[in-house]
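B., you asked whether I could sanity-check this one before it goes into the benchmark set. Here's the sequence:
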Amino acid sequence: MTKHTSKDDLLDNTTHGANLNAKFEIGDEFLKILRDNTFNGIDRGDVIDHMAKVLEISEWIKIPDVDLNPIRLHVFSNLLGGDAKEWWNNEID
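And here's what the prediction gave me:
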């Protein structure tokens, strides 16, 4: 049987030991890339391809002594739109 992993579980696991006070700025070009690669879940896009894209995009972020997992989770949530974003937001509750 598969165990359901909640978003809170992911956040707890990704923030453990992370430098949560690190300051950085996300540039306009990076934000454009996020907008251009939104996954909405409607068009039957491949979830595996989307996750690979999230990992590829998050590899561009280089911050010394910062755990990238919380940033990857943030990038993932910002690459969702439509039904997929609604699903993600419902997971918060």
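One thing to flag: The helical segments are 7-15, 28-36, 47-58, 68-78, 82-92. Otherwise nothing jumped out at me.
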